[in-house]
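User: I've been trying to design a sequence by hand for this structure and keep getting stuck. Would you show me what you'd pick, starting by listing the structure so we're on the same page?

Assistant: Good idea, let's start from the same input. This is the structure you sent:
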């Protein structure tokens, strides 16, 4: 669909949200969307689905949008969900409660659109809502972007004239400050990994805070804007010319929330690039996602990435979780006079072909319409599900995606694209995270231990046609290792051709190819092609993965592999 005017973006919002209308509960406080589970109970699951559409509806109302249907649902739902005597009451709390996450959208509604969220409530309903929100001040919340949920709740209570906890708000802001690393990059609490939580959480909430607290907290308002401006100059490297963004890290089921940061920039009044360039990023990003199979037959967003997929989900992904993606609609809060509604979308600004993002721990290569990130495996050892696959592969590509393992029992279930996979006693072992690493200007060097008695030093170096990998292996165990290339679509991109020679393997379809080649090596090498289990890759339902099979001997082994890709 065409995306240019305010009406176009509002129509897209309604296209996504209108299928929800018949599914709200009788009192409006619950939104049952499916039957899969999460680590929290049904009350929080249905609250989550209720809350997250507000990330779009609130900006829509701020921008003058007229829709009595949703306004009525949310007026009734907020009253019922926070009333302990109502059958749809959302319930009380425990430490680390999921309900705290969903408070943020409600709080932003109170701050930005009180005429829809707050003023229509009776005094008793306001007191119930305020008391329920205040619960976040009395329980433990994680040391990460969750601190902003508490901050925004207290800002909302303060601006609505209700009791709030100034001390907790200040403590939360100080913790956010402690996460800052440099060049616009934060760390999301304790984990070393850098992912979209820096953009669609910490910076996003920081820019909302900067906008609504300009008078009360001018120093932080300026600081959050300055840091976001610096961050934007690097984060733009995660976006491809076709509108796709880098598939990397957790919470990828939030899909087009990948671009929410750019809407937050406009909302806060900063322009790290021209408005036309930012509009181009947003328009192309939505276009990309609208071409993917992200809705079910009833128009409901699914858990998955380019298609419905539970393999890649985290334990906190419930049926309503994907509506976090509505945060990207923050641009709807812009006034009609804003340049965003009047300029034509522009191409991406001129970017370097190879860029080191020092504080993101990655080297990004831009080539032939593909964006590839080379990373060292800096991540939690065990996180929210399939952490090594989401953070510790050698390379992540907008064109080729990455795969999630179904198991580590056999190679085709492990689907270890962009990994060196060791086969020992019929089990598959890959890089989980690195013991140490160095990011060079043109390479990524890491030391890792896939299995006790095996240590690997891997050097990944981008080339004009892809990248090379040098693996220096010290092993106490004779075994087999598979150096795997990218996944290539098997069925849906035209005829798929395979080619295997003594020391190389290639998979090629009508749009892309991947070739792996054994270069100098101290051990026996043999090309091969893996038929990955269905639905393991995030962007393709069926895939082949070319690999080089190496015989690892006891002692010192050195492997050199080139991985070359091409888009047609």
């Amino acid at each position: 669909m065409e995306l240019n005017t305010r009406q176009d973006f509002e129509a897209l919002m309604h296209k996504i949200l209108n299928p929800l209308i018949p599914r709200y509960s009788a009192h409006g406080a619950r939104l049952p969307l499916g039957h899969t589970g999460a680590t929290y109970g049904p009350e929080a699951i249905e609250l989550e689905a209720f809350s997250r559409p507000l990330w779009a509806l609130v900006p829509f109302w701020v921008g003058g949008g007229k829709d009595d249907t949703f306004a009525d649902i949310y007026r009734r739902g907020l009253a019922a969900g926070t009333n302990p005597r109502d059958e749809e009451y959302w319930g009380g709390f425990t430490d680390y409660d999921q309900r705290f996450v969903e408070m943020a959208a409600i709080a932003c509604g109170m701050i930005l659109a009180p005429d829809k969220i707050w003023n229509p409530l009776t005094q008793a309903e306001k007191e119930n809502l305020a008391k329920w929100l205040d619960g976040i001040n009395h329980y433990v919340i994680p040391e990460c972007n969750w601190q902003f949920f508490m901050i925004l709740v207290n800002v909302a209570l303060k601006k609505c004239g209700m009791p709030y906890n100034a001390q907790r708000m200040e403590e939360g802001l100080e913790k956010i400050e402690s996460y800052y690393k440099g060049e616009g990059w934060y760390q999301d609490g304790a984990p070393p990994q850098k992912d979209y939580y820096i953009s669609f959480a910490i910076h996003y909430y920081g820019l909302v805070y900067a906008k609504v607290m300009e008078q009360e907290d001018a120093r932080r308002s300026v600081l959050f804007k300055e840091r976001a401006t610096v961050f934007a100059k690097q984060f733009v490297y995660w976006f491809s010319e076709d509108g796709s963004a880098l598939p990397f890290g957790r919470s990828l089921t939030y899909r087009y929330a990948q671009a929410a940061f750019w809407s937050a920039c406009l909302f806060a009044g900063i322009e790290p690039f021209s408005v036309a360039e930012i509009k181009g990023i947003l328009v192309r990003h939505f276009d990309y996602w609208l071409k993917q199979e992200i809705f079910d037959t009833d128009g409901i967003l699914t858990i998955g990435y380019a298609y419905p997929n539970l393999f890649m989900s985290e334990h906190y992904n419930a049926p309503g979780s994907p509506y976090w993606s509505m945060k990207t609609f923050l641009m709807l809060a812009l006034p009609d006079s804003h340049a965003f509604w009047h300029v034509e979308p522009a191409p991406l600004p001129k970017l370097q072909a190879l860029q080191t993002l020092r504080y993101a721990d990655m080297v990004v290569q831009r080539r032939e319409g593909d964006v590839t990130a080379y990373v060292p495996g800096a991540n939690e050892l065990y996180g929210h599900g399939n952490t090594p696959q989401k953070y510790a592969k050698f390379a992540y590509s907008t064109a080729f995606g990455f795969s999630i393992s179904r198991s580590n029992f056999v190679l085709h279930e492990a689907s270890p694209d962009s990994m060196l996979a060791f086969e020992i006693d019929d089990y598959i072992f890959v890089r989980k995270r690195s013991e140490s690493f160095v990011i060079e200007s043109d390479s990524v060097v890491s030391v890792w231990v896939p299995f006790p008695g095996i240590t690997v030093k891997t050097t990944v170096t981008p080339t004009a046609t892809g990248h090379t990998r040098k693996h220096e292996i010290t092993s106490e165990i004779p075994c087999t290792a598979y150096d795997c290339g990218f996944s290539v679509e098997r069925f849906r991109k035209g005829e798929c051709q395979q080619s295997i020679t003594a020391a190389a393997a290639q998979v090629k379809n009508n749009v892309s190819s991947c070739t792996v080649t054994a270069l100098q090596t101290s051990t026996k090498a043999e090309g091969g092609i893996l038929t990955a289990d269905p639905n393991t890759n995030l962007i393709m339902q069926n895939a082949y993965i070319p690999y080089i099979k190496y015989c690892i001997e006891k002692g010192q082994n050195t492997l050199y592999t080139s991985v070359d890709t091409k888009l047609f």
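That's my pick for every position. To get oriented when you compare it with your attempt: The chain has a mean pLDDT of 97. The CA atoms of residues 38 and 316 lie 5 Å apart.
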